[in-house]
Amino acid sequence: MDTFKKHFLSKSNQYGCQQLTDASDGKIDVCTGVCGIICPKHFLEDAEKGIIHLPNKRSRPSATPISMPPNINASQHFQKEQQQQLPMSNGSSFTQQPFQPIVTTPSTVLDRAIEGSPQKRLNDEARVDDALSCFIDPLSTNRGDKSNKEYVKKHRILVAKAIDEINSSVTSSEQFFRQLVSKTSTLHSREDHAALKAIHLAGTSWLTSNSANNDVSRISQGHRGRLFQVSEPEAPDAEMLVRGKTFVPSSSVDKIVTVWNRFIHFITRYNPKLIEAQLTEAQRIYFAKLEHHDKEMDALKDAAAEIVETNIIFGIVLAAVHETPQKANGMNSVEYFLVASAINAPVGNRLSFKYGGSIASDSNNLLRLIRHCVCSH
Fold first, then answer.
1. Phi/psi at 213 (nearest 5 deg)?
2. Rounded to two decimals, what is the model's pTM?
3. What gap in Å lies between CA 312 and CA 297, rounded to an integer?
4. By C-alpha distance, which of 256, 278, 250 is closest to 193?
5. Sign of the torsion angle spanned by Cα atoms 58, 62, 63, 68
6. How far apart are CA 268 and CA 197, in angstroms?
């Protein structure tokens, strides 16, 4: 009560609050609204004059229980409300199905086990060693040598899922890896898509002309900070948020351009159906420019400038990032590209893995390319 009087009867009462000793019905005029809300009449009169009284207490929730139809308990009523709030799909309400784990063995695997198939098991050491044999020189004794068995086995984590995809009855592991690496070549061939040159040139122009960096600058620091955390292995803690790590414009784009050139050639050759829509859009632009230019290079430059202003570049990269593997624990096109980028495949010589620093650099520049695409999309 002392605190109450101190507020209402002292100079600290900066809001002009008034103390009512008796506000019961009969002492002052009280109005009751259609929703059962009770309010002093002079509050309403003041409100009409533009004078608003702020309440000192929060309104209490109604104690009236929710009415429910007979023979329906609270649990059933809650489930019914949930179903009504679920989005509609194809004109019918979505009903959540209970999770059904796969607890039986697929028939093909079971038949192979019964028949005693000579096919090597997934985690068979001999199977993995056989797949990596194309990288290994059996005579090498220097563990720092790229062809040494111990050095090669350090890269198993990089190619483990790729080895699972090798069908030894169709192709050898060396042929499999060489084919992947060949798709990263920036040399154009007759089999390449007609729009590849224009898209390749457009991406290079987008990065080197500062268009990509300007798009980063247009994004607020908070949003760029969230973008920077996408690759972090853990959710940001309080210390990370205080540090304010954020994605910033690239001071040098040369290595990003190199990764872009190899990536666009790889994805166009390895999985053109994934980016079919973007390839078709770019081809239409390029063919339209060919009608207005006598020289192919002039048409390519004109088409590239127009492609930069579309979502073609960003659509290609983001489509690859969001690609779902065809099977559980399988690989998507980006993962195949990372494998291909980590391997040297000189003609006539043994396959070899690049050094860790080079692999990490390519991966970081690919990540930076993806972040630039998100900012420019």
1. -65, -35
2. 0.65
3. 20
4. 278
5. negative
6. 11
Q: Among residues 322, 337, 343, 331, which one has the least CA distance to residue 165?
A: 331
Whole-angstrom Cα distance, residue 314 to residue 307?
Answer: 10
Lowest-pLDDT choice from 25-29, 91-95, 300-304: 91-95
Mean pLDDT of 235-256: 70
Query: What H or E segment, with its residue span, contains residue 38?
Result: strand 38-40
Residues 6+ apart with CB under 8 A from 168: 130
291 Cβ contact partners less than 8 Å away, ≥ 6 residues apart: none
Expressed in angstroms, the distance from the first to the final Cα of the chain is 61
- Do the beta carbons of residue 168 and residue 278 sit within 8 Å? no
In this structure, what are the phi and psi dihedrals at residue 44, rounded to the nearest 5 degrees? Answer: -70, -40
Written as one letter, the residue type at 315 is G
**Nearest one of 257, 300, 265, 278 to 192, comparing CA atoms:** 265
CA R_g for the chain: 33
Buried residues in 165-179 as b, exposed as e (16+ CB within 10 A): ebeeeeeebeebbbe
Which percentage of the chain shows pLDDT scores above 90? 37
Angle of CA points 181, 186, 189, to nearest 5°: 95
> Tell me: the pLDDT tens digits for 145-195?
888 888 898 888 889 889 888 887 788 999 999 999 999 999 989 999 999
Amino acid at 96: Q
Phi, psi of 92 (to 5 degrees): -130, 150
For residue 129, pLDDT beyond 50: yes
- Per DSSP, the residues of 100-136 read ----S--HHHHHHHHHT--PPPTT-HHHHHHHHGGG-
| Helix 196-208, helix 276-290: angle, nearest 10 | 90
Q: How far apart are CA 320 and CA 338, in angstroms?
A: 12
